[in-house]
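Entry 14. Structure prediction run on the chain below.
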Amino acid sequence: MSRPAPRPAVAALAPYVPGRPIEEVEAQYGIHGAVKLASNENPLGPSPKALEAAAKALLEVHRYPDGSATFLRRAIAERFAVEADQVILGAGASELIDITIRSFVDPGDEVVVPHGIFGMFPVATGRAAGRLVRVPTRPDLTPDLPAMREAIGPRTKVVALANPNNPTGAYARREELDRFVASLPEEVLFVLDEAYFEFAAGLVPDYPDGLVHLRAGRPILVLRTFSKIAGLAGLRIGYGFGPVEVLSAMHKVREPFNANLVAQAAALAALDDTEHRTRVRDLVVAERARLFSALSERRLAVHPSIGNFLLVEVDGEFAPLEPEFARRGVIVRPMAGWGYPRGFRVSVGTREENDRFLAVLDELRAVGRIGAAPAGAVAG
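Output returned:
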């Protein structure tokens, strides 16, 4: 008997696999009080101002949200010195990646990315039956922008870069990115994912701001989110900046009311919560440095990062070790799906959460489950 068959491009897809929720891990292993350091979530929780605004907005959820998100787009535009019609909202930056690919990529068209880019770029390209062109990174995992430029061909519609990249934490420097953007063909859309912008801007001297290129009139789409710095991951609210003609196409493709009422209210309030942003950033920067030092001292291969996470590699495949961490109440993220079979990503948590992670790591090292960094790995 024949059965309904999906499109070949869908059948071939490897779906995006999110981090495991705390409730699932606790139920599986019969434990309580697990800590999740798998999904790069905010260690201090949501913005207090956002929580207050969200609570008030809940009283209005019998109403449809503002489909144009007028007030939030205006506020974002004012904050970042662009025009409101250069701002688009999505259910997280992930949805905006998908909308972008569906708007600009036909079957067989190419999307050029560095190896190890955030997993939604391959998924979105596959959904559109596009061809993903992966360009190897340099040995230090930074993107090889000249090689990416060479990879652009007549079927290339989109070039994408996450800066910094998730899961590696590596980034393209300002001067090199400027040269790269200037070299791109006008008909190619450059998507710059800056989901972790707030953890680097103003702190890393040569970290670039993609909006410079938008203001210069380049065909660029810059993506950011309220998930990380504002702690609103569960509300799914991201935003992008782009030329009006690019966003006009994306508005035709996005779902109506894709930014829900509560998320819009919370995000609007979070924009003004400078105190929370500063506390989160200060904590992440301090604890990231402490974690990096602690892992390096343990002779593990830990890659430098300017995000709120670290990519760590061990002496063998990490997949069998993930449940060993989980049963001990620490959830981390295996990275084989990103092309790093020996790797896992650990989010920067509170000091107490990070200490618990290190204690479990030491327990596994003590029984010989985790060894020193493999020869040739980046460590320190």
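Residues 232 and 337 are 25 Å apart (CA to CA).
Filed with the rest of this week's runs.
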